[in-house]
Amino acid sequence: MLPQGWAVAFTALFAVTGAHSLWALVGRRDSIRRARAQGHALTDLSHLVMSLAMIAMAWWTPGGPALLLQVVVFTALGLLLLLRALDRSRPPGARHGAAAGAAMNAAMVWMVAGTSVIMPGMPAMAGMPASHPAGGSASTAGAGSTSMAGMVMSSPAGTPAWAGALTWLTVAALGALALWWSMRAVRRERAERSVGHCACCAAMSAGMALILVVMVQGG
Description:
- By secondary structure, this protein is an all-alpha fold.
- It has 10 helices and no strands.
């Protein structure tokens, strides 16, 4: 879906964040402070799923059942994290982190569901059959295909104003989250999570913001 250079860069970034989240999930099974650790398992699971989805999105355009599944999964994760953010019995740091996770899942829902609006024509090109129309000559079909491809490649972005505004608002929110997580990492706020976790969240937020910028700019 994205140019190869960007796809490789995003794959490397989200492979690191996904590996960190997986390590956090697996390593926490033998943690002495298991009760407190289990309260963060949902966040780590969310980050792992998001990392995998972002890698897939860099190379393939979501569509059909896969798109619907991602929307359902990220909506469910976002709602669960939102409930934790609203739970006043949890420490403030945990609530803030859960709220940030819910916002990141909301961004994922828009990123997945709005791909065809942010990048008009991309899903159609990704799923375009290679067969020629019945009854047409190969040369006619080839000319038609070339003409269609030229039309898609030379047309303007065509993103509706409301979709562009929503996308840039999402980019701004993710950028703010990346800055917030970076500040927590620098200040070494270890009350709830490690510095590594804060750095991972900052990298994920920044990467999600950047991939949205690439999408809305058409690569």
